[in-house]
Amino acid sequence: MPTKPPPLRPKPARKQSNWNRRASRQSRGYGREHERIRAELLQDEPLCRECAKVGRVTAAVIADHIVPLSQGGSGERSNYQPLCRPHSDAKTAREAAAGRTKP
Ligand SMILES: [Zn+2]
């Protein structure tokens, strides 16, 4: 006897799982103010701060929150630092790992 067709499924899953999907920029406190500070910061300090510590000269492309907003960091410019993409990604990964192991 024929089996019933499977129930209709929602759209196929995306290529990547959503485990590391981040909230929208707005809900993370980003917005016009962030863009303004980012532009100022990268203009005033166009090199990655972490690279500079080890004597490398790398263009910064990210205005990073030194203390993440999710950990109570402020949106003030004093809480921003210019980072290159690899340093920003590494910091983000460290923060995500720290967040997962928090009690
Ligand atoms: Zn760097």
Automatic annotation (TrEMBL):
Q: Which GO terms describe its molecular function?
A: endonuclease activity; nucleic acid binding; zinc ion binding
Matching Pfam families, A to Z? HNH
Question: Could you name the domain of life of the organism this protein comes from?
Answer: Bacteria
List where Pro residues composition bias occurs: 1-10
Region (Disordered) location: 1-33, 69-103
Where the record annotates domain HNH nuclease, the positions are 36-89
Q: Tell me the leader sequence span.
A: none
InterPro entries per the UniProt record, alphabetical? HNH, HNH_nuc
- What protein name applies here? DNAse
Q: Which organism is it from?
A: Sphingomonas sanxanigenens DSM 19645 = NX02
